[in-house]
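Supplementary notes (optional reading)

For those who missed the lab, this is the record we used. Protein: diaminopimelate epimerase. Length: 363 residues.
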Amino acid sequence: MAASISLTRSFRPRDPVVATHPFRLASPFRFGRSFPLFRNRSSRSPSASMSVQAPKKSPDLEFLDRRDSGILHFVKYHGLGNDFIMVDNRNSSEPKVTPEQAVKLCNRNIGVGADGVIFVLPGVNDTDYTMRIFNSDGSEPEMCGNGIRCFARFITELENLHGMQSFRIHTGAGLIVPEIQSDGKVKVDMGHPILHAPDIPTKIPANKNGSVIKAELVVDGISWNVTCVSMGNPHCVTFGTKKCEALHVDDIKLEDIGPKFEHHEMFPSRTNTEFVQVISRSHLKMRVWERGAGATLACGTGACAVVVAAVLEGHTERHCIVELPGGPLEIEWREEDNHVYMTGPAEEIVVYGWFRKDGWMDE
């Protein structure tokens, strides 16, 4: 594997972050010399930036140059800390890396490090593009809310677009339409929530018009109140246990309880789980355990599911701010069209590089 990565902090020649294994640099790296694949758009102060100065961008050094078919180019984005390796896959309908390779790329110790790898593929059925994503464990979710916002911003980079934009994206959850706003945030029409229990899917018996709303689920001997929602992918939302209705999410030991929800027998396709604290009728605080990725700083589909569940349980109004560890999302479940709308940031991380698709990636 060959790699070139732009880091956002300064380091000295003896800094342990620089290693010769497992990364084999594509060309000799020398401190004080520019490296062609580095670009740094950070607004941080010079003391927080890499000491190597990036050259001005030129067409023959563009990081998306495909002259070498054995090279996989990538760039990283994040949505509220939920980070992704973005791959331009517009010239093929099949992802350029396998799920097994994605696991290695997402490894934060021996790879690039990410919650998933997202591919921009050609559109189908009158859509502009297709989005596929491999989680850090190699599984493939139907959709990702933070990922779709990063996807939209990445498209503007690939196509050199400016200003307000709208895209029709084909996903495993169906048609999703993200819009780039004038302030740079991305507003996404996430479609309507799925509440019919078998379609989520969950085996928890429906208790209200075919839906699972504030039903009992026993996890590791504790009875929880849960509401199940699908936003194209399954979510189990809880505001507390049977004994303690009010949940304080900072007290949750997520790494202990999260996997037990994810792999519970009541969820045949596993589930994402959101633990939610009600701050007010328009303000929720949540932590999430994502199916296939574990504890993450944010989950867009999860925030959408949380507001739907909060409305169904009578906790909030239809328009809420959802506070996640990585920052806030604005969520609205509109009564007139039954669609959920998510608005939030998607930001480019100053990491650009490429991998030679042999050696380490194929081990």
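If you only remember one thing from this example: The CA atoms of residues 239 and 276 lie 5 Å apart.
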